[in-house]
Design brief:
single chain, 443 residues, alpha/beta, eight-stranded mixed beta sheet
Length: 443
């Protein structure tokens, strides 16, 4: 069962540490079955309750998982950076449309906003014990959330969308719990969930967002949380429509104890209305970051939700980093107040670039998806071959494996900096890479 490795220890903590060391060293591999508790207790000459306590410690740390009579196994290694390795080095002379970044030319200048925030910081230094959230940021953010129909709730700030989502998951879930997540979906999120010791339940996505029947199936199977990208879904560009939002609210209404997390990272770069689901369940969180519209280095996301969720997140935040820099918060306030970004023009530009590529692909018999955001998702029968052929043709695209669990294969193209002159040649290269097959859809 364990090969040559022998678990050691007389106390629960020692037994748990022995297993954890073996997992870390590779002596115990993912999926490996551990001895039944009574068998190990006999071998170690300890009480079975001691082994039971050790296994409980390991489950809580996300090291092992238990499936009733099927026993306890070593969990898959947390994929903390696994999907980041699914990329290629872009050779010189190859056009890179794989990165997922916004167009730097469309980002506002930060110099004046930070200068003003710094000057205020000199006059009014932020000290330990001060409020987590800049009052003016809270006022402006709340007004924007109100305008979009996001329910009233307390507000806090995190260091970007992923940080906020991680904090909300940690506030409510324990290792071994299941999270329903979009498939295909954001690669970093698909890595984060198992890194927290949580399980993923894939939910199919179409152009209107998560499929209600898949969400219902996941929740009925025991998923305790659901994460939805409202707009600019990565990688498909899906955006939740009014009809889809009604259908999802109906499903969630039947499962009111579900932890609902909504990610609206596309705010400021999309021209489609928001149809929030927030408030349908007892515990919910709505996250809105500024990275895509104002710059990835602005590590700031606004988080609102039910009182218990926000209180838990804020309390835990104070015990770690304490707060998100108030200088950064004040700089964002200045960017918002000064109208530093013409969001309508930016959204229009990204829409035109998506539509241009999707139209060019359609003319060549290739189906693609991208209702909103920075990316276009192209279903393919063989993504490894498609990526290789496109690279040979001078185009670097993102392989779909970075974003998929059980969904059919595809490739992601970031159109953020795509020029009108490039759309045709890129579409030609994609069509050539896919061969003569008819249009396809993703799962």
């Amino acid at each position: 069962m364990l090969g040559e490795y022998r678990i050691e220890g007389r106390r629960a903590a020692e037994i748990a540490a022995s297993v954890e060391r073996a997992v870390g060293s590779g002596d115990l591999e993912p999926g490996q079955l551990l001895p039944p508790m009574r068998e190990l207790a006999t071998e170690l000459e300890v009480n079975p309750n001691t082994v039971a306590s050790a296994y409980r410690i390991l489950r809580e740390r996300g090291v092992i998982e238990t499936a009733g009579r099927r026993g306890s196994r070593v969990r898959p290694k947390p994929a903390t950076t696994g999907r980041e390795y699914i990329r290629m080095d872009v050779p010189e002379g190859v056009r890179n449309v794989a990165g997922g970044n916004p167009d730097p030319a469309l980002l506002p200048s930060l110099a004046r906003a930070f200068a003003q925030a710094g000057e205020r910081g000199d006059r009014e230094p932020v000290l330990y014990g001060d409020a987590l959230v800049e009052p003016e940021l809270e006022r402006l953010a709340r007004a924007r959330l109100d305008a979009d129909g996001v329910p009233e709730g307390p507000l806090t700030v995190a260091s970007g969308s992923l940080d906020a989502i991680e904090r909300v998951l940690a506030a409510h879930l324990k290792p071994g719990d299941t999270v329903a997540v979009e498939d295909p979906g954001w690669g970093s999120l698909l890595d984060l969930i198992p890194a927290l010791g949580l399980r993923t339940a894939p939910v199919g996505v179409d152009d209107e967002g998560p499929r209600p029947e898949d969400v219902r199936r996941a929740l009925e199977s025991g998923a305790r949380a659901l994460i939805v990208t409202d707009r600019a879904q990565n990688p498909t560009g899906a955006a939740v429509t009014a009809a889809r939002a009604r259908a999802l609210r109906t499903v969630l209404g039947d499962h009111p104890r579900t932890l609902l997390i909504e990610d609206d990272h596309g705010h400021g770069i999309v021209d489609l209305p928001l149809h929030p689901l927030a408030g349908t369940t007892h515990h919910w969180a709505f996250v809105r970051s500024v990275a895509k519209a104002y710059g990835p280095d602005l590590r700031l996301a606004v988080l609102t939700g039910d009182a218990l969720t926000v209180d838990r997140v804020s309390g835990r935040h104070r015990l770690g980093p304490g707060w998100v820099s108030r200088i950064t918060q004040r700089a964002v306030v200045r960017l918002w107040a000064d109208g530093a970004l013409d969001t309508e023009a930016v959204a229009k530009t990204y829409r035109e670039r998506r539509d241009l590529l999707i139209g060019a692909l359609a003319e060549r018999g290739v189906l693609a998806h991208g209702r909103s955001g920075l990316n276009v998702w192209i279903p393919v029968p063989d993504e490894t071959g498609a990526v290789a052929r496109l690279l040979h043709a001078g185009w670097a695209v993102a392989p779909g494996a970075r974003f998929r669990m059980t969904a059919p294969q595809g490739i992601r193209v970031t159109v953020a900096t795509l020029t009108p002159q490039e759309a045709g040649p890129l579409a030609d290269a994609v069509a050539e890479a896919l061969g003569p097959s008819p249009t396809r859809t993703y799962g």
